[in-house]
Amino acid sequence: MKKLLCTSVAGLLIGNALPAFAASTTELTVTGLITPTACTPSLSSGGLVEYAKVSAKDLDPIRSTKLADARLEMEILCEGPTAMAFKLIDNQLGTSTSKYGLGLGLTSAQEKIGQVIIKFENPLADNVAVHVSESEDGGQTWATNKTQGFYTLSLHAPSNTADMTQPISSTRFTTGLKINALIARADSLTLTGEEAFRANGTIEVNYL
């Protein structure tokens, strides 16, 4: 028993003999909000647009070649009135010929084949016509989306046509999507054999 007591005292003395250091600190705070409602996006035709073969000789040598328009319907269905936004994520990042559209992949020579540009048509929130606003700062501020483009760099949200800077809550949001595939100018591509092109994106819903 005496031996144990001595060991404890020695440890205390050693601790007191160490110099004192001032510590610099900072705080990390994590906050969030659990929403009681959930929203589910869906696309008509399983989100698939298919083009037939495109002949290399039909491509414009000095400007992009626009393929035939395609259209899909998008629906975002919520369990109740919800303030939400959505974004388009390019799953082939770095392959688009612009910063706004989905990339069409690369040729065998690692050249960018082109892009897919998407625009909203006849957007409705709970069967009422709305504007689709955009935010380039993660939803901090909202602005008029003059071209109604579904851009890969922005958040998008339904807003009242009288005030396009304020997203609105809805239970069911629907819109047509006009899809334009553009092949890069032919003189920028090595087309000595067949080259498959494919765009792939994910639509993600965010809650406001």
Notes on the protein architecture:
With 208 residues, the chain is mostly beta strands. It has one domain: Immunoglobulin-like (Sandwich), CATH 2.60.40. The protein contains one helix and eleven strands. 25% of the residues are buried.
CATH class: Mainly Beta
Characterize the biggest β-sheet. 11 strands, antiparallel
Say how many strands there are: 11
What distance lies between the first and last C-alpha atoms, to the nearest angstrom? 65 Å
The averaged pLDDT comes out at: 85
Tell me the series of helices and strands, N- to C-terminal: HEEEEEEEEEEE
Give the overall shape, derived from the CA principal axes: globular
Percent range for β-strand residues: 35-45%
Number of helices: 1
CATH topology: Immunoglobulin-like
Structural class category: mainly beta
Number of structural units classed as domains: 1
SSE map:
Layout: H1 2-17, E1 39-43, E2 65-66, E3 70-90, E4 102-103, E5 114-125, E6 128-129, E7 131-135, E8 155-160, E9 163-167, E10 169-183, E11 201-207
Antiparallel strand pairs: 1-3, 2-10, 3-8, 3-10, 3-11, 4-5, 5-6, 5-10, 7-8, 8-9
